[in-house]
Specification:
- The structure holds two protein chains of two kinds.
- By secondary structure, chain A is an alpha+beta fold.
- Helix content of chain A is 31%, strand content 23%.
- Chain A is built from 15 helices and 21 strands.
- In chain A, strands 1, 8, 9, 10, 11, 12, 14 and 19 form an eight-stranded mixed β-sheet that branches. A five-stranded mixed β-sheet of chain A has the order 16-15-17-13-18. In chain A, strands 4-5-7-6 form a four-stranded antiparallel β-sheet, with helices on one face.
- In chain A, a hairpin with a 2-residue loop joins strand 6 and strand 7.
- Chain A is globular.
- In chain B, strands 1-2 form a two-stranded antiparallel sheet.
- By secondary structure, chain B is an all-alpha fold.
- The radius of gyration of chain B is 24 Å and the shape is globular.
- Chain B has 15 helices and two strands.
- In chain B, 74% of the residues lie in helices and 1% in strands.
- Classes of the chains: A alpha+beta, B mainly alpha.
- At the A-B interface, strand 8, strand 10, helix 6 and helix 12 of A face helix 5, helix 7 and helix 14 of B.
Chain lengths: 514, 335
């Protein structure tokens, strides 16, 4: 546990080190090569990953995540769940925005009202409203305490709060909605020095930073003087910049370039599991997928390892079920559908599926290569599987309702789970009638468990319910379970105390450079 | 060349611009599916934002009315809102335009500076080894894929030798107040020679990548034009008068040989302005070309429409300017 004294001492040392470096004329700087520029610097006015990455270094949230993806308090000192619809947050004291204004509970209320109330952004509604589900109201109890009230139980509120940053009410009133796009006033470890649109966002260290979460080692002001997010859309140029020492971290390193980076003296490859689960949804309302033996056969038939190694360059983690191994309530004891074509053939014969039965695997152009590989591997069972590529705008509605997908067979698709909580993926994709339930899966016990977990405040009990639900889903096999792609980064060896996170955030607060 | 001829020639460009406007307009109409749903797929817009976009695009009105509305708005420079950036389309384009123009002008200047001496040398040494070598080199230059050439330059000059930076417009240590958006001008206006030098260094590789294929093309034009001029009577007469070779070439031959070069250079400038997407993407150059590529991937149709229209207007204008220049330089040619 880190005491207040440790934090203060750490902060003082960091300030001293920074002053020394400046006195020596050396600016400790880290450069991150990203594929896209920030769209805005207003935390409430985007739904874009790269934008979030930049903004999260300027602004802090009520809660954050550590490198293991555990939820930790940040601006909040602590939080507790009062009941299924109410959460209470106790705020730290002495937090200042970059302008010098002190952060208050009113700022927190203003932030969440701006995010969730209709037309609260100068007549517009925040595009991030959907990320806060049924959050109905934020109430200030006293100058250090706010309470969030939900319209209905929503257990992933704490998991979703790291995605929202607290803004300065007075600053918003001063600069207006337009000003918020380019003149941020956060309370995060870095403040904006210059935004060269389309080229780079240049941040400088905020010396009066309160230090961030004390529950994550390295609290205190940032260890570097300057952080630059440099826009480099082209893969080869990004890699060249890393190898030339022009940038220190690059995102979206192509798997084919991993060996080149590893071979260089000054850079290395870092990988982390992403949060998007890939699967093949089987149309359960249609023969032969209404027979569980067929679904088991298809899971046994697919050699996931071959696709992961040959097409995905070993940059994906195979899954036995729905959830990422990094997620809350992940069930590590799920049985594996071992690759066994003979067994698959036997199960299909047992289910009375004739050899040569034609099946179609629908997908979009981006997944064509994988879909063709899956079709070829499934065809080894004697089925004749064909991949069919559609426009996304046509495919999505085609699989949305039971009537529209009546004649379809299989869908290669994926579902993001940024919250790393089962509620955010199992409810939409596996609960009866869920908006992403392409397979049309309906299981009374799974529905009961998912519903109960939504209102359960005891996290242990909630986790147990989700683990049980995962076991049933794996047994029922409404999908061919595939994999979780990894995010790949190229990182200069001089970068210390940084590693990629599953939520794709690039937090530079605790980074040091050698 | 009378004013009425210029006006007539100007009016001839209108059908072209009208045709381009129609194609650009139909881009949204011919897209399968609901264009609003497609455009907003990644931006998670709220229902009222979707409704506003639908109204902005006039999707609830008859097609001819929508086209007239689009034309009227385009003439006023109003292309609606870029949902991706959540700002007016024209604001986003105007912000990126100077970088693209600066790169294009640098590339065309480089191309002219390289091509004229090489083209003249090839013509003077016609059918000798120098001519053959330059012909082969220009063929190679014209065939260079910009993507490959840019990466090659980065690997050699940035990664291996560290002479030039990999990308960007200027060093991050230098902050220059934005006056025009043209960095070479802004740095000089601010009296910042260090920043000017940095901007030049950053401009070098993208300008070479963009300019070299054009230089190869122009060199071929200069060579053939110069070769033709060198066999003309007045050049032979000048040589017979005993004028020095340099004087004959510089004073008499080159002046006339450059007339077609002006036309080609003007048209090439238009092509470079609209065709630098790849170079801007490779070098992380924050210009319009890269913005268009990003907008295509983000299905940001209003921005793509505006940019395509801008490219067309620029191209037509430069063609027109080339015609005017050609007539001015060579009175024998009439518009």
């Amino acid at each position: 546990m880190f005491t207040r004294r440790t934090v203060v001492l750490g902060g003082a040392l960091a300030v001293a080190a920074a002053s020394w470096a400046k006195a020596q004329g050396r600016v400790r700087e880290i450069r991150v090569g990203v594929t896209q520029d920030a769209l805005t610097l207003d935390p409430a006015n985007h739904r874009n990953r790269e934008t979030q990455t930049v903004i999260r270094n300027i602004y802090d949230g009520l809660l954050t995540r550590d490198a293991e993806m555990r939820i930790r308090p940040e601006i909040a000192e602590s939080w507790r769940q009062i009941d299924a619809r109410t959460y209470e947050f106790r705020l730290r004291t002495g937090i200042r925005f970059h302008s010098g204004d002190v952060l208050t509970a009113e700022d927190v209320k203003f932030t969440f009202d701006r995010l969730t109330k209709d037309n609260a952004m100068g007549g517009q509604t925040s595009p991030r409203k959907g990320l806060l589900g049924p959050l109905q109201d934020t109430v200030v109890l006293d100058e250090r305490t706010v309470r969030m009230v939900l319209a209905e139980p929503w257990p992933i509120l704490p998991a979703m709060l790291p995605f929202q940053e607290v803004v300065n009410r007075r600053h918003v009133e001063r600069v207006g909605q337009e000003g918020m796009q380019t003149r941020p006033d956060g309370c995060g470890p870095f403040r904006l020095a210059e935004w060269r649109r389309g080229e780079a966002v240049i941040l400088e260290r905020f010396a009066d930073y309160y230090g961030g979460s004390t529950e994550i080692p390295g609290a205190g002001p940032a260890q570097i003087d300057r952080a630059i997010f440099r826009v480099m859309p082209e893969n080869s140029a990004r890699i060249a910049a890393l190898l030339a020492g022009e940038v220190d971290i690059i995102t979206e390193l192509p798997a084919s370039a991993m060996r080149q980076v590893e071979a260089s003296a000054n850079a290395q490859v870092m990988k982390v599991n992403g949060t998007r689960t890939f699967f093949v949804a089987l149309n359960l309302a249609k023969k032969p997928f209404n027979d569980v033996r067929v679904r088991h056969a298809l899971n046994h038939a697919l050699d996931k390892g071959a696709i992961i190694s040959r097409i995905l360059n070993n940059t994906a983690t195979p899954l036995r079920g729905v959830m990422s191994p990094d997620a809350f309530a992940f069930n590590p004891d799920l049985p594996e559908y071992v690759h066994d074509v003979a067994r698959a053939r036997a199960l299909l014969a047992e289910a009375g599926v004739p050899q040569g039965t034609e099946l179609v695997l629908d997908t979009v152009a981006a997944l064509k290569e994988i879909a063709e590989a899956i079709a070829a591997l499934l065809s080894r069972t004697g089925l004749r599987v064909r991949a069919q590529v559609w426009e996304g705008a046509v495919l999505t509605p085609m699989w949305q309702t039971p009537e529209r997908r009546r004649d379809r067979d299989m869908l290669l698709t994926s579902w993001g789970n940024g919250s790393l909580d089962p509620s955010d993926i199992m409810v939409p994709t596996l609960r009866t009638g869920g908006r992403g339930n392409s397979a049309g899966f309906s299981n009374a016990e799974v529905d009961r468990l998912l519903d109960a977990a939504e209102t359960e405040t005891d996290q242990e009990k909630r986790a147990a319910m989700y683990r049980r639900a995962q076991a049933i889903v794996t047994e029922e096999a409404p999908w061919i379970f595939l994999w979780l792609p990894q995010d790949i980064y190229g990182v200069a060896r001089r970068v210390q105390n940084w590693r990629p996170q599953a939520d794709s955030r690039i937090n530079l607060h605790r980074v040091r450079v050698g | 060349m009378t004013a009425s001829r210029v006006l007539e020639r100007l009016l001839q460009t209108l059908p072209v611009l009208f045709g381009v406007s129609l194609i650009v307009f139909l881009m949204i109409t011919l897209t399968p599916g609901d264009p609003v749903e497609i455009m907003l797929a990644d931006s998670r817009a709220t229902p009222e934002q979707a409704a506003r976009l639908r109204a902005d695009l006039g999707l609830d009105r008859p097609l001819p009315e929508r086209f007239l509305l689009f034309l009227g708005n385009a003439l006023r420079g109003d292309f609606g809102l870029s949902f991706f950036h959540r700002r007016p389309v024209w604001d986003v384009i105007a912000e990126r335009l100077p970088a693209t123009i600066e790169l294009t002008l640098a590339a065309i200047l480089l191309a002219i500076l390289v091509s004229i001496p090489l083209g003249v040398a090839a013509a003077v040494k016609r059918d000798r080894w120098l001519d053959r070598a330059l012909s082969a080199a220009s063929l190679f230059g014209v065939s260079l894929p910009g993507f490959w050439f840019g990466i090659l330059l980065i690997l050699l000059f940035a990664v291996t030798w560290g002479i030039f930076p990999v990308g960007g417009r200027t060093s991050f240590d230098l902050e220059v107040p934005r006056l025009t958006g043209f960095l070479l001008i802004d740095t000089l206006a601010a009296g910042r020679l260090d920043a000017f030098g940095s901007a030049l260094r950053h401009l070098a590789l993208p300008a070479i990548t963009l300019g070299l294929p054009t230089a190869a093309l122009l060199a071929r034009v200069v060579r053939s034009s110069m070769a033709e001029v060198l066999t003309s009577d007045y050049v032979l007469f000048a040589e017979a008068k005993g004028l020095s070779r340099a004087r004959v070439l510089g004073r008499h031959a080159l002046k006339n040989a450059l007339i077609p070069v002006v036309t080609v250079a003007a048209i090439e400038t238009g092509s470079l302005l609209g065709g630098n997407m790849i170079v801007e993407t490779v070098f992380g150059w924050p210009g319009l070309g890269r913005l268009v590529v990003e907008s295509i991937f983000a299905r940001n149709y209003p921005l793509v429409q505006a940019a395509v229209l801008l490219y067309a207007v620029t191209y037509v204008t430069l063609n027109f300017a080339a015609d005017l220049a050609y007539t001015a330089l060579n009175p024998k040619v009439r518009l």
